Amino acid sequence: MTEKVTDTQAPLDRIRAENIVDRIGSFVAAGVRVTRICAECESGINTAQLEKLLSEMRIPGTPQLGDWFAGRAEPHLLALEKWADEEDATGQLNLDEYAKTETFERVYGTLFAAHKARALVAITATYGIGKTFAARRYARDNPRRANEPGAVWFEFGPGTKGDSGVLDAILGALEPYSASSGNVSSKLGRILTILKPGDFLIADECGIPTEKGTGLRFMSYIHEQAGIPVAMIGNPSFHAAVWGKRSDYDALASRTKHISLDGNSDTDVDAWMDFKGITGRNLKKVVLLVVGQPGRDGGLRGAETVLSELRSRGLDVTAENFLETAKLFGRMG
């Protein structure tokens, strides 16, 4: 009897190899750290090898796979493919399974239009409604690769402060394999040199740098000087800083097309419940109560937290259990 050949045993031809490289590149564009990929990949690939693999695979006429890394390219690629499969199955960026909510479609559509028009846009809304997921999904669908322009998503971390902090975050997205260095002028010059027509910067958590300086003003300068689209995404603090009473961001506000979204809608909840396979009029009423909570406890993210806890404890997804669990986790005022 002939033994069945599995996918991992099958010959690694160029088409399959390029597909693996494209998948890994799309994760990087969507904000997955290269250090994490290398740490979790079972082949022992390091960041320098990963950078080489992702960049040279996209150049016509590069050496055959067996010549790379003293014959180690194929094991690395197979291990990366396994990592990507596992990430799609269990990670936060499972692109094949998600609820197509009205909010998701609006955020995704805004980014698509901005990319096409090379526009400077801002999307502001309350917490937990799905802005970040839609943005990362867009970056994965339209990724910036080593030798091809495209979208890259990144977020400003809690420690982002001042001009240098904003530029460091941008450089970290554009050059994820090396540390940022130099003064503000050199960092800005490096960013403008790297960016090419067709690139798209998608910056998330934009409220953080507005609380600790005026570095976010570089976003409009980069948009104008590089001629590339830029999207800024943030919560109420971002909205208040740029379109509120402060005057230090007036120039940015005047140059930016601003989309202000409400919280998750009734149709968002319908789509989410359908996707999760849960039904019931009374259950929907409770989910809407959780989703409508003010501040960081609301949105579909709040409902997702409650549902995950219910299922982890083996409880039936009823209106009563959903409400009690929501209260337990502080998702109800």
Care to give the gist of this entry?
With 333 residues, this protein is α/β, with parallel strands linked by helices. The chain is 53% helix and 7% strand.
Q: Could you please describe the fold and organization of this structure?
A:
The structure is a single chain. The protein is globular, with a radius of gyration of 22 Å. The chain is an alpha/beta fold. The protein has helices at residues 14-29, 34-40, 47-56, 73-90, 102-117, 131-141, 162-174, 184-194, 207-211, 218-226, 236-243, 250-255, 266-276, 281-291, 299-312, 319-328, and strands at residues 120-124, 151-155, 200-204, 230-234, 257-260. It has a five-stranded parallel sheet, sandwiched between helices.
Q: What global shape is seen? A: globular
Rg result: 22 Å
Helicity, as a percent range? 40-55%
| Series of H and E elements | HHHHHEHEHHEHHEHHEHHHH
Please, what is the average pLDDT? 87
